[in-house]
């Protein structure tokens, strides 16, 4: 090693002087490298350690610092210094000292100085750097200059350096340049506009005319850069720019008919990059418009027929055409033609073309799964390809062509690669894909595969620190949730999952993602943990709670898991209370502290509610007056509790009391402004007990603890529903399970033969037949589909949504509105009324104004809650989505198997009307009665009506959470 | 859109970096290291496209590279760019450099960093392809050099400009750029 270094050092100077000062200095007359730079480079290249390099570079930087601040530097010297600075910057050293010099040089007079100054600025500074402000003036001046070079430099700088606020300062000047006599300047001006469009689209509204003019520019170069701009515009809004389509088609026609000068040809193809971009634009336009598609067909035919040159760039154009064909309104003939060209790609020996071929096939499969049939063996071979990129693309293709029949095999393949791969990015990608598939075809996961899935995911999340993409945790939770529900042997699986979680919980260094899943599982399936000694659970949970590494979010999850565990009887009351009281609340955020308090109160009260009990509002009547609590409330009042006042009322009273005082004095939670009050009460909507723990009525809470609520009767009614639907669900599973069983059998078969080349071939064939199963059997299964379909229709109330989007991954609806949809209409109106009332009352700022409105007060209380819920949803979205996982499953889009096989037939999507219904009831018919008004309308009227009570404490979806309890307190007041 | 253009040698030493999207200084270094790590692992007989790397744009992010002797030219692009198109764009870039420096080598990229950036600025602007015709790029560079000089009062006629324009039918000969023999540098391990 050392002699190599020596040789290097010995040969370098000779080489450098030869190369740069000898022959080369003739060719590049303005040799910018000086001896100092060469020496510096020699030292840097000769270093043996990072530390040594750092020393050398630091020394160099200090020299440069001194030299740059000298007053009279010649342009050549300065060029040299700045080149050295740029090198130091590139290898990652701090050169902040030079920024101001770069700006100063850009402001200087001569072109050489200016040019290097601008270059240094654009490499060293970024658009938000404060020194840019010093540069704006210079840029403006240079834009106004009559010198071509000045203009070009300024436009390049504008493109790189200006931020959104500075754009208006130069926009008129840049616009002016669109009519500059030189095409180079026009091109650069258009590129600047492109950048502006990305940064500040709002500024570009009135530019249409000018843009169109540049699109029709007589210089093909300007025209081709304006297509970049139009691509951006079309991408944002394809409908609006449909009219551009014809111009683009016209341009395209001119290009492929070789109307342009030969100088625009690359490898004897005219403007290939422009062709690619035009194809992309037209694909976007054609996907929305039949008319453009029709105009586009002959062009595509032409392109595919013409480009028979064997050159990379020609293949690039062919790929783009294939992609366009799959994007625009489908044309049978063109799709066939595209499929033929895909064959050309796939049969090629070039790795590049194979990769592109797989990519093209993926696009084609989205239009029709049958196109993949011709290339089965190629696809299987690509799966075993040595090139990771091609493998990756092939797996993407597999997950695209997954259908009911082959999803198990596809998942196996994905998981196999997941365990083999070492690339964390690919892994996280695969996790998403598997979670997606598991989400789309949940029923086809056999027991062993489910366990494998959980193991793999846990393993992956343990290892991949922080690179699992957002949303994947929600997806995994959803998959686990749906697997734990409903199938015959789900209990076994639940046991497995909870045991796995427990085991993992005791390990150290968990990632927040994994912890999230574990906490959720432990809470949700708490009833599988009954046998555990409680300190085994409580300790680690508390440990994570006080661990400052985790976010507030994790703490909230832990609290809700604790509540669930308590309800299931895993945790003992006294111990839990003492543990919770022991937690220091100082570091906690208000929201978490609030939840903690709520939990303590809830646990103290000793109410154990069944986790399984959930809201089912199709058969549910709310007792708005909470009359069943009358006894309890009167008892409390006798015991000396103060009557309940609604938050508004409290606010009004206090306001009138302390009118003269400053606002700041009213620092108590209840005394704050309207919006803050709503924050508090909405927090309690999420609160585990739905009990406003921090409200004034402290006495009530105490009493509640003493008396305890008898909820047993209510519980029974609820569990009945759960049982009733479970059976129905199981029957649906049985319907599909034979398919999966048959599949796994086949899979075992092909796993069995592995030796010998013949057997290798058989294996591949088996794999191919397993992979392409659903697609090949298309014809046979069609009749079967029809039967299935009708059965399904009878089983469920299906909302049929037609569409052929089955191939796209169906996105789970975690973000869905947590409020019941059916109710929104009613709520909205009420909302309006109450808002008006509230506004009036607040305007009057008199307590009696509110008292007069008592009739509508109940309305307004509820209304506030709705608003809060919506606001709150934004704040705690993450938290919500976790808790929503189960209920949301009802809402998730389920694709019926038979439709996938058909490919062309409309996809039936099962949607429950209401996502808040009991998860156990997801198959039960839940059609909304059109006559049935919003349940809140009903309950407002039926004052004395007593019925089921929402006993679901653990869900935010106890919509009335706060409002119900508000009611409960106001009832007490009336008494 | 092109997010970044990176050139580094076989040891991962950066030779040229241009980012068209702002990243903090340390993130830039991280991207260079990560890209080198991803690219250098790949064998010669596999395709020159890569997906992955979360730093720049997550799944909407591709690496397209070419390996010439001791240098890797890597373009980091988003999903809207055509792989094969970018592959040829790299070729245009390298051919232009080669024309400009007569057998470009690693050290040219360092010592003439300004010129390299001027060429790049004509090829790609703000992350979009500006001009793909090599002759046109060379003419522009020469024109700007001329202007610069005439302004600075140097009357030296750029002989190379004439030769560049004359040499219109640039053959494919430069496809495999031979860098000056630097065996000792090639075997050096920088730790």
What amount of the residues of chain B lies in strands?
A: 15-25%
Task: Pick out the low-confidence regions of chain A.
Answer: 9-32, 662-755, 777-828, 841-975
Distance between the termini of chain A: 94 Å
The whole-angstrom Rg of chain A is 35 Å
For the termini of chain B, the CA-CA separation is 34 Å
Number of strands of chain A: 4
Number of helices of chain B: 7
What Rg of chain B do the Cα atoms give?
A: 17 Å
Q: Quick check: average pLDDT of chain B?
A: 78
Oligomer: heterodimer
How much of the sequence lies in strands of chain A comes to under 5%
Order of helices and strands of chain B: EEHEEEHHHEEHHH
Category by helix and strand content of chain B: alpha+beta
Architecture overview:
The complex is a heterodimer of chains A (975) and B (191). Chain A is mostly helical and 975 residues long. Chain A is built from 45 helices and 4 strands. In chain A, strands 1-2 form a two-stranded antiparallel sheet. In chain A, strands 3-4 form a two-stranded antiparallel sheet. The longest helix of chain A has 41 residues, at 712-752. Chain A is globular. Chain B has helices spanning 25-40, 83-101, 106-111, 113-123, 134-152, 159-166, 183-187, and strands at residues 2-9, 14-19, 49-51, 62-68, 71-77, 124-125, 128-129. Chain B has a 5-stranded antiparallel sheet, sandwiched between helices. A two-stranded antiparallel sheet of chain B has the order 6-7. In chain B, a hairpin with a 2-residue loop joins strand 4 (62-68) and strand 5. In chain B, helix 5 runs antiparallel to helix 6. The longest helix of chain B is centred in the middle third of the chain and has 19 residues, at 83-101. The chains are: A mainly alpha (975), B alpha+beta (191). Chains A and B meet through helix 1, helix 2, helix 4, helix 6 and helix 8 of A and strand 2, helix 1, strand 3, helix 2 and helix 3 of B.
């Amino acid at each position: 090693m050392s002699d190599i270094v020596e040789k290097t050092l010995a040969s370098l100077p000779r080489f450098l002087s030869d190369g740069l000062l000898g022959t080369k200095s003739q060719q590049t007359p303005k040799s910018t490298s000086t001896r100092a730079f060469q020496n510096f480079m020699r030292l840097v290249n000769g270093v043996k350690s990072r530390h040594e390099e750092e020393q050398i570079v630091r020394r160099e930087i200090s020299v440069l610092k001194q030299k740059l601040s000298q007053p009279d530097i010649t342009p050549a010297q300065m060029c040299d210094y700045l080149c050295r600075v740029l090198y130091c910057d590139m290898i990652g050293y701090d050169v902040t000292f030079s920024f101001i010099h770069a700006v100063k040089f850009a402001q200087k007079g001569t072109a050489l100085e200016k040019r290097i100054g601008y270059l240094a600025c654009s490499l060293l500074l970024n658009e938000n750097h404060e020194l840019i402000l010093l540069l704006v003036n210079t840029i403006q001046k240079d834009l106004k200059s009559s010198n071509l070079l000045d203009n070009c430099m300024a436009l390049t700088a504008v493109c790189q350096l200006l931020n959104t606020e500075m754009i208006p300062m130069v926009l008129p000047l840049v616009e002016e340049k669109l009519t500059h006599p030189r095409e180079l300047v026009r091109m650069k001006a258009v590129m600047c506009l492109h950048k502006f469009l990305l940064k500040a689209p709002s500024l570009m509204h009135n530019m249409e005319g000018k843009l169109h003019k540049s699109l029709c520019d007589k210089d093909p170069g300007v025209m081709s850069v304006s297509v970049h701009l139009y691509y951006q515009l079309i991408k944002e809004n394809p409908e609006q720019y449909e009219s551009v389509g014809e111009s683009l088609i016209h341009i395209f026609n001119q290009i492929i008919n070789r109307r342009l000068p030969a100088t625009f040809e690359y490898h004897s193809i005219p403007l290939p990059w422009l062709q690619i971009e035009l194809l992309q634009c037209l694909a976007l336009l054609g996907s929305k418009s039949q008319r453009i598609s029709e105009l586009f067909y002959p062009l595509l035919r032409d392109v595919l027929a013409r480009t028979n040159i064997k050159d990379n760039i020609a293949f690039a154009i062919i790929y783009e055409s294939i992609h366009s064909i799959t994007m625009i309104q489908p044309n049978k003939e063109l799709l066939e033609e595209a499929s033929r060209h895909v064959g050309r790609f796939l049969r090629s020996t070039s790795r590049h073309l194979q990769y592109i071929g797989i990519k093209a096939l993926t696009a084609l499969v989205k239009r029709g799964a049958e196109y993949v049939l011709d290339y089965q063996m190629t696809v299987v071979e690509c799966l075993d390809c040595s090139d990771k990129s091609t493998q990756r693309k092939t797996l993407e293709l597999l997950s695209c062509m997954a259908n009911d029949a082959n999803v198990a095999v596809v998942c196996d393949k994905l998981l196999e690669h997941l365990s083999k791969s070492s690339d964390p990015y690919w892994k996280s990608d695969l996790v998403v894909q598997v979670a997606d598939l598991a989400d789309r075809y949940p029923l086809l996961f056999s027991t062993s595969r489910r366990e494998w899935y959980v193991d793999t995911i846990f393993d992956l999340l343990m290892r991949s620190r922080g690179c699992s993409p957002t949303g994947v945790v929600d997806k995994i939770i959803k998959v686990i949730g749906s697997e734990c529900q409903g199938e015959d042997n789900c209990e076994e699986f639940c046991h497995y999952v909870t045991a796995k979680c427990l085991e993992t919980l005791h390990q150290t260094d968990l990632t927040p993602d994994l912890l999230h899943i574990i906490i959720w599982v432990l809470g949700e399936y708490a009833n599988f943990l009954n046998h555990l000694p409680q300190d085994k659970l409580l300790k680690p949970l508390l440990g994570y709670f006080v661990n400052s590494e985790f976010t507030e979010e994790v703490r909230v999850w832990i609290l809700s898991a604790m509540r669930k565990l308590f309800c299931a009887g895993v945790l003992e009351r006294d111990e839990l209370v003492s543990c919770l009281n022991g937690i220091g609340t100082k570091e906690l955020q208000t929201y978490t502290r609030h939840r903690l308090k709520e939990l303590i109160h809830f646990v103290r009260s000793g109410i154990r509610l069944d986790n399984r009990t959930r809201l089912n509002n199709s058969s549910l009547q709310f007792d708005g007056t909470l009359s069943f609590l009358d006894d309890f409330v009167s008892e409390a009042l006798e015991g000396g509790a103060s009557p309940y006042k609604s938050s508004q009322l409290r606010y009004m009273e206090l306001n009138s009391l302390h009118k003269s005082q400053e606002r700041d004095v009213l620092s108590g939670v209840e005394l704050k402004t309207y919006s803050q009050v709503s924050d508090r009460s909405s927090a309690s909507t999420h609160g585990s007990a739905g009990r406003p723990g921090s409200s004034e009525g402290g006495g009530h809470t105490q009493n509640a603890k003493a008396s305890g609520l008898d909820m047993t009767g209510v519980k029974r009614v609820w569990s009945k529903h759960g049982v009733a639907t479970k059976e129905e669900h199981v029957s649906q599973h049985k319907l599909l399970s034979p398919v999966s069983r048959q599949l796994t059998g086949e899979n075992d078969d092909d796993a069995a033969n592995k030796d010998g080349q013949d057997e290798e071939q058989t294996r591949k064939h088996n794999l191919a037949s397993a992979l392409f199963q659903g697609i090949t059997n298309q014809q046979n299964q069609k009749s079967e589909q029809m039967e299935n379909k009708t059965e399904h229709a009878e089983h469920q109330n299906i909302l049929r949504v037609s569409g052929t989007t089955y191939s796209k991954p169906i996105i789970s609806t975690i973000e869905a509105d947590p409020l019941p949809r059916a109710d929104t209409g009613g709520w909205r109106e009420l909302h309006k009324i109450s808002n008006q009332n509230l506004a009036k009352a607040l305007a009057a700022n008199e307590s009696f104004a509110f008292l007069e409105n008592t009739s509508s007060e109940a309305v307004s209380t509820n209304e506030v809650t709705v608003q809060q819920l919506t606001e709150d949803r934004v704040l705690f979205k993450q938290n919500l989505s976790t808790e929503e996982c189960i209920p949301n499953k009802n809402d998730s889009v389920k694709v019926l198997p038979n439709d996938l096989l058909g490919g062309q037939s409309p996809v039936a999507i099962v949607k429950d009307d209401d996502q808040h219904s009991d998860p156990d009831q997801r198959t039960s018919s839940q059609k909304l009665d059109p006559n049935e008004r919003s349940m809140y309308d009903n309950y407002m009227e039926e004052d004395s009506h007593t019925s089921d009570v929402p006993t679901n404490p653990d869900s935010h979806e106890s919509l009335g959470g706060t409002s119900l309890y508000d009611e409960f307190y106001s009832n007490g007041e009336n008494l | 859109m092109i997010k970044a253009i990176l050139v580094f040698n076989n040891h991962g030493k950066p030779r040229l970096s241009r980012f068209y999207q702002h990243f903090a200084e340390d993130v830039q270094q991280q991207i260079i290291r990560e890209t080198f790590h991803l690219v250098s692992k790949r064998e010669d007989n596999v395709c020159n496209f890569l997906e992955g790397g979360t730093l720049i744009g997550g799944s909407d992010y591709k690496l397209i590279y070419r390996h010439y002797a001791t240098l890797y030219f890597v373009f980091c692009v988003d999903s809207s760019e055509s792989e094969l198109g970018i592959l040829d764009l790299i070729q245009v870039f390298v051919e232009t450099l080669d024309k400009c420096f007569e057998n470009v080598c690693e050290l040219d990229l360092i010592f003439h960093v300004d010129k390299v950036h001027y060429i790049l600025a004509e090829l790609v602007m703000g992350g979009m392809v500006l001009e793909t015709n090599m002759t046109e790029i060379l003419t522009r560079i020469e024109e700007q050099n001329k202007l610069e000089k005439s302004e600075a009062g140097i009357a030296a006629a750029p002989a190379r400009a004439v030769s560049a324009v004359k040499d219109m039918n640039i053959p494919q000969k430069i496809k495999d750029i031979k860098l000056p023999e630097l065996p000792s540098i090639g075997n050096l391990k920088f730790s």
